[in-house]
Structure formats: C-alpha cells, structure tokens
Amino acid sequence: MSYRAMPLECYCGEVPEQILEVGFTSDHHLVIHYWCSACHRVIFMTRTLDECRDFCPLPDEEASVAAAEDARFLQSLGIRSAE
Predict the structure, then answer these.
(1) Which residues, at least 6 apart from 59, have a Cβ–Cβ distance to it below 8 Å?
(2) Which of 9, 35, 51, 77 has the highest local Cβ count within 10 Å?
(3) How many CB atoms sit inside 10 A of residue 45's CB?
C-alpha cells in the first residue's frame, strides 16, 4: 500500500510539529487540528472527501499483481475469492 502525505502548513508558512486531533464533521469533511509553534496560532484545516480522494496516489501496480497471484494460489487450494 502506498500513501501520499497531505501537505499541511500554517498561514505563516511553517509546517506543524504535531497534529492535535483528526476528525470528521457532520457534513462529511475531514478536520485536522494543529497548533503552530512558530506564530502560536491554532489551526483547524478542513478537506472534503473529494479533496481527500484527489490527494490519493494511483493504485500500486505491484500490489495488483501480488493480489492476482494470491488469488490464483488460493484458487489452487480450492478457496474462492470474494471478488
């Protein structure tokens, strides 16, 4: 599985040293809460689920090949894939 780091930075341009909370709103937004140690601001950044999907990397081809090989192996043992 691959992932892409979500870019986070304060209005002053600094990157947060730590994230305080991650959560979801009732209208399906991701919320990231952090504190900027450079300018001492409390930041609440939100992203829609569509924006989150845009950050996702493309599927890993090696993982797809490995999944196909795993499915063939399981089938050779008489185990059907759920797909």
Answers:
(1) none
(2) 35
(3) 17
Computed on alpha carbons and rounded to an integer, the radius of gyration of the chain in Å comes to 20
Structure tokens at 67: 């999944």
Residue 46 exposure: Cα atoms within 13 Å on the Cβ side: 7
pTM over 0.85: no
User: Rounded CA gap, 41 and 39, in Å?
Assistant: 6
pLDDT tens digits along 31-63: 999 999 999 999 999 999 999 888 888 876 666
Compute the distance between CA of residue 51 and CA of residue 73 in angstroms, rounded to an integer.
37
Structure tokens belonging to residue 45: 């950044």
Provide the residue ranges of all domains of the chain, joining segments of one domain with +: 1-83
Question: Rounded to whole angstroms, how far apart are CA atoms 62 and 56?
Answer: 17
